[in-house]
Each structure stands twice: as C-alpha cells, then as structure tokens.
Structure of GIY-YIG domain-containing protein:
Amino acid sequence: MYCIYTIQNKLNNKVYVGQSKNYKKRWSDHKRHARNLWLGKNKPADSCIQVIHMAMAKYGVDNFELKIINEYDTQKEVDSAEIELIDRLQSRSNKKGYNIIPGGRNGVGSGPDHPLYGKSAHNRLFTKEQEPEVCQKYSDEKLTITKLAEIYHCEQSTVYKMLQRNDIEILGNKVFSKGKYYSPDTEFKKEQTPHNKLFTTEQETEICKLYTAEELSTTEIAMKYNCHRTVIIRLLDRHNTDKRNRGFYSKGKVAHNRLFDLDTEEEIISKYSDDRMTLTVLGKRYNCDRSTISDILDRYGVNKRVGKLTDADKIKIVEEYKTIKSQSKLAKKYGVSKPTIGKILKTAPLTNTNNFAAV
C-alpha cells in the first residue's frame, strides 16, 4: 500500500509533498536528517539532505506537521497523484513549498510494471535448455561448482547465481568429499602421530585426568608441562572435556593482581558513600580508571548512585553547546558521560539557528 503525505510549516504554510510505503519511517528519517544537520553531523551539501530538512533544522521539528492525504494500490497511481498534488499546491515554488522535482518515479516502473519484466537478459550465458542440464549435473551427479565452471568456461559465481535462480539447494563440502581417493602415502600419514605433536597419547590422558579428577587449572597444568595454557585448552577441546568457569578457582581468594589492599578499598567505599565523591573523581584521586572503582563497589555490594540531570540542566546544556561545541567539556562540567550529553542533544527540541541559508 502506497500513500501520499504532506509536511507543512506551521509558521509560513510552506508545504512538502512526498510518497512512501511506510510513512512513519519516512517521517522519522526526515526528522533524523534535520537533527543531524542542526548538530553539524551532516552538511547542507550532503546527498541525503533535502530542502525540507534544512527548513526543519532552521524552524524546529515541532513547527512542522505531517498529514496523510490518500492511499493507493500501485506505484503508477501514487506517482500520478504525487505529480498532480505538487502541481496543484505549487510546492516547487520557493514561496509556497520545498519540492524540487515534479514528483513520481520518472515514469520507470518496478516489478511487473518494468518494461523488461519477464524477459531474459540478452547477456545470459546459459540457455533455457542448458540450465536444467547444469542443475541436474550439480544435484544428481554431484559435480562441484568449480568443475561445472571449468566445463562451461565461466566463473564459479555465474554457476552459483544460476543455481540460486533455479532454487537449487547449495550443497556443503562434505557432500563432495565422500568417497574421495587418497594416495597410499596420504593414507599412511593419516595413521601416524604428527612429528610436531607435543604430548604422547598417555600424556594427553594424564592431562585430562589432572584437569577433571584433581581439578588443576589449565594454567597450573601448563606450568607443570612447560607449555602455554592455550595448548592445554585445545587438548581438552580435542578430547571433548567440559571446561570449568575460571571463577571456580577464585572463590574465597584475593586476586594476586588486585590494585588496592583491603584498607584502601574500604576507604574508597567510605569516600563514595559518605563524602559523595563520584566514580570519576575517585578514579583520578587513586590514579586508576573509573571502572576499577565501579568494580570495587560491585564487589562489596554497594548501590551505585544514578546521576540525574534536571530539566533546567538539560536546557542549559543545549544552549551552552551552541557556543562550546564540545560534548566532552559539557560532560566534565556536569559530571556525566559524553554519551549522556549526546543523548540530551539528540532528544532536545530544535530551536532557531542562523547556521543555514534562508529556506
């Protein structure tokens, strides 16, 4: 279902006429382009920016209203209606609207309306008689796409697309590897232990036993056998051994690489809870990342504060951004993260600005 819609400026009554299958998404796209233009993420010269977007950025999204005019069943009908409405409202005039082109899709239909619909491409490699033959060789005779490409002197992608066009299921490599012939040398090598294998069969069994029965960690086993722990992990995977979570070994233990001792951690918690210091301030004071402070609070079950900005603060942020032009500075000033500032700017109502030409 197609629809014709208008977007009207409430302040000067200028109008834009458009068509869409999903008017809600189209309206959301118009507002997003206008907001990105206002924030400086897009420029008026960008291909995605239309005159209507510059007008919405200048006057504010709230000063524009979307109306659904009518619905249509076919592309031809909606094209004709759009052209007629643009002409009737004179929305291509600079004084009355924001349209640039007469409307429609330039007379080129799609699907059954396209002039080439149902016709074979003049440069198609296979004839209608050859395509079933190729499909039969692939499905029944199990010739690979590579082999078929060699037989018909074409690219593998050509055969692949032809099979897809005829709804032929693309077979996996395992189908073509069944019954594959190996030379006597290869068969002999398959039965031998690789020369670069680190452990014997007996040692591998012992390692699995150390991990499962004696509950040694992969790191401890690696130190015992003088190898990297990834070698042990791959060995366990090869023997289908269920691996334990690393937290299994840390229960009741203090990590050897913990940054602060217990007294310092208690001091940090006190400054956060009693002195109301933020994570960022504590991170700078103790020369660590704020995430380290956050982990300490989580470990002791301390409820973290959720900083909320008032509506007055949000209005100040929007106004100050026009002069500061830095989300990082605003985040530092108001004690919040940079993404929080970005979200406030994104959801704030657009106000008048002189950054755009008169539209």
